[in-house]
Design goal:
Layout (H helix, E strand, L loop, with lengths): L2 H15 L3 H38 L9 H22 L9 H18 L1
Helix pairs in contact: 2-3
Length: 117
């Protein structure tokens, strides 16, 4: 997206909802990070599919599918991909927004139910 288009989008959002410049650029940066992660994921899938496909058709049989070296690139690159995903999505993957608050309410409700039984 070009800078002029981003400025027009910001002006429109600012008029509609009163969003600040700082909030907009934070959201914009986050969207770019998510987009880069998805591009990384697509490249990971395509390259590893090609490597497995190439390994299968270069061999006389499908025996390479069961050898460790066939999956070593996928394994080590996968570790990097998981790290990239955690850096982009952060703790929201496991706990999400307001996780602590929801858990506290859940435990309090259980305690009230158990108290009356």
């Amino acid at each position: 997206m070009r800078r002029a288009e981003r400025e027009r989008m910001f002006q429109k959002l600012n008029q509609e909802s009163g969003i600040s410049n700082e909030e907009y650029y934070y959201a914009f940066a986050r969207v770019k990070r998510i987009k880069k992660f998805y591009v990384h994921l697509i490249v990971f899938i395509l390259v590893n599919a090609y490597l497995i496909f190439d390994e299968c058709f270069d061999a006389e049989s499908f025996v390479p599918l069961f050898k460790l070296h066939t999956y070593s690139t996928m394994f080590f690159w996968g570790i990097g991909l998981v790290a990239h995903g955690l850096s982009v999505f952060g703790k929201d993957i496991f706990f999400g927004n307001n996780w602590e608050e929801r858990k506290i309410k859940e435990f309090m409700e259980k305690d009230q139910v158990n108290r009356f039984e």
